[in-house]
Amino acid sequence: MYLIGSDIGTSGTKTVLFDLQGNTVASALCEYPLYQPKNGWAEQDPRDWWNAVCESIKAVVTKSGVDPKDIKGVGLSGQMHGLVMLDKNDEVIRPSIIWCDQRTAKECEEMTDIIGADKLIEITANPAMTGFTASKIMWVKNNEPENFEKCAKIMLPKDYIRYMLTGEFATEVSDASGMQLLDVPARDWSPYVLDKLGIDRAKLGKVYESCEETGRVTKRAAELTGLCEGTIVAGGAGDQAAGAVGNGIVREGIISATIGTSGVVFAHTDKLSIDPKGRVHTLCHAVPGCWHIMGVTQGAGLSFKWMRDNFFENEKSTAALLGNDPNYIMDKIAEQVPAGANGLVYLPYLMGERTPHLDPDCRGVFFGLSAMHTKKDMLRAVMEGVIFSLTNCMDIIKDMTGTTPETVYASGGGGNSTLWRTMMADSFAMPISRNNSKEGGALGVAILAGVAAGLYKSVPDACAELIREKDSTPFNEANAEIYKKYYTLYNKLYSDLKDSFKML
């Protein structure tokens, strides 16, 4: 028997077929574009996601040679917070405004005025956020009233895929928590918030726990994907909760630090814990009856990719000719520069910032640039700036929980890099581990599908069976002291530049 996990990401959809021991049988990646029609805007076409899901599922079924009848469940993960709007004919009304879009600062102020800052945090566990879905809905309401009036269904990215696979209009608690319409303590839509914002509850799908069955593959979807009609589709999870399940972050004391397009530090909690300052997010976990605390930085891997694509084109081409991973080459270049990047500090605010600043107006900065610096120093500074942003997240979570974690697992694309893990260990001043799971998010939702299909007893039981520590990277005390000093400067720079960002 087998399970499928499909992760609808920002740059592409990755679908993985697993056996019940969590081993990868086949995988496929289909990419699609990101559109930025204005500075700070970010949009994608939901139909690109659907085409990618169909193509990637069909590819793994074909490559594996597995009988589709033996695929017992499908789990969906996806980029969080994106706004998908359908009309009464189930047609996409406008491009999806996705997670990293920063256009909604005015709507966040409006939401705070209407609901009240304290009340909003009490119900949704977070202050009004430009990245979250509610402010995007309000932006459409304020700026495209004709589209708001046409809207019959409001969905998140992965829930649009669920609708296309099953015909069921539904979501689940982990992803819905990031819409800012959910009563996070109660794990259901908030009548109070919906009423205050003028959003009809009928436009929102039924809310499930992440490991519940939410529908079954239709005949039409079976034809497009190669799956069997009637295959179970589980609730699934937002990308971060899915990755946490896939990395075994399903009990207290274990934390993950992820470097993907964004950067995330993620902690499981059995009890609801909300930061009154709104610096980190509290959301429902994909483990029933549990929550998670999550610090998010907008421009983690995004900063690295920006640096690589704009300054290291020759190195990328050389890597391709040699058949090497360009990111491996980049690591080797950055390793030539000592900790502290020869006095160069980078602020990774290419798309504004969430944790800890909640500032859509801040932007990327190189501080300390001099004639001695080369692009190698700039690359090292970019990587260190991303690590400092994750350290911000870790410090707040430690403050909220009152404890230092037992184990920190590195994950995401950056987690595969020895240099990223070494920098993280030195900045956190603690060892950084990896586990045997290479397919975090996809494995996480495959596990959820397995629970929904009755193949595993519970999410924690499945993780205990499938996920084990692989290795650990120690920290260097001398580098930890260097980073401690630069981290102090890093934090001071935002305070010094805050007003200047607004002027810009």
Rg from Cα: 22 Å
Shape verdict: globular
**Unreliable spans:** none
Helix content: 40-55%
Beta-strand residue percentage: 15-25%
Query: Which structural category fits the helices and strands?
Result: alpha+beta
Quaternary organization: single chain
Describe the sheet with the most strands.
7 strands, mixed
- Termini, distance in Å? 56 Å
Q: What number is the mean pLDDT?
A: 95
Number of strands: 24
- Number of discrete helical segments: 18
Write a brief structural summary.
By secondary structure, this protein is of the alpha+beta class.
Question: Any overview of this molecule?
Answer:
There is one protein chain. Strands 1, 2, 3, 5, 13, 14 and 15 form a 7-stranded mixed beta sheet that branches. This protein has 504 residues and is an alpha+beta fold. Helix 1 (46-64) crosses helix 6 and helix 10 (239-246) crosses helix 16 (440-452). The model has no long low-confidence stretch (mean pLDDT 95).
Annotation keywords:
41% helix; 504 residues; 7-stranded mixed sheet; alpha+beta
